[in-house]
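Input for the complex:
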Amino acid sequence: MTRAEDAKLEPNKAQSGVSQYSETLDGLFGYHLKRATNVLQLDLKHALKPFDLRMLTYTALVLIVDNPGLRQSQLAEAMDVERPNMVVIIDTLENRKLIIRDRVPTDRRAYALNATLAGRRLCEKATMAVKQHEERLLHQLSPEMRQTVIAALTLIRKVGGGVAP
Amino acid sequence: MTRAEDAKLEPNKAQSGVSQYSETLDGLFGYHLKRATNVLQLDLKHALKPFDLRMLTYTALVLIVDNPGLRQSQLAEAMDVERPNMVVIIDTLENRKLIIRDRVPTDRRAYALNATLAGRRLCEKATMAVKQHEERLLHQLSPEMRQTVIAALTLIRKVGGGVAP
DNA sequence: AAAAATGGTTATCAGATATAACTATTATCA
DNA sequence: TGATAATAGTTATATCTGATAACCATTTTT
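Predicted:
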């Protein structure tokens, strides 16, 4: 949560000016992870703004485009979002005619979610924009470095994935 | 946001069962970052629960302990939190007598934040717990891998730090 | 001395997230 | 088969985080 890069040059100058620094936080992996995620998420927000999408609506749209016929409960599980919260996300996408709730013939309780042509087009454009924004932030990282990081992040997810209540 | 590791084994089985998968999301660096951060943050939450601290209160406490005399506005800036939101965080820490708002003799508008003995002790214990929890999630990552990841995350922060509005 | 800027506060709002309770339908099994 | 349980989706609601506007007291600027 901080922006104290310069602090490293001059630690513990809290009284004087702008620089705060914490050895403790700097020693926590999660702290660095969180800060970088914030940066990337803020950037994502701006990347999606022209399309009037937010992170959650964009993610839902992508998953529906990539998984035609998906049901709401599956989508909710895939996004780690509670079903009640999923409803409003689907609602906004449906109201914009980016997706439709088709009925499932074999189960009249469920909806099969499908993207419309407009939805697929918007999804494609938005994804291009997101990738461009990401590239701007990541251009300093070599492909190998990126792969290492992604591998590490995937490992963390695997370890912690099913542990917490 | 998803938990679709197994999806990689069998992509595009949305209709059948539990596995959803998105090439698109998987190609986004920020997606992996966000998912891993969620895991780590959930873990952090549990690690801090015994101390009745949440991420923001913990972070604030650490920064005050590591930067005695810090002012609220400096802390807010360091945490990327708006000043109004900082107030309630400081309030809860002060109510628990973990910190005190000392007056700044040279500026009667400002408060100099200082941790109490109890605050420093709780901070130390909480940090030990957080580190233990982190270690459990990161034990698969070699020290070199961790360093690479942290270096990458720091780079991202540097690039994106001052760009977004 | 007047005007502008700063530190902290209050009130308020939007977004994300979590839970309980409801309906309609489907699945279970005695 | 018929009662019961489970599931898909919904509504309503509460909490937490995050952001903005407006305010008071004080300091700085001019």
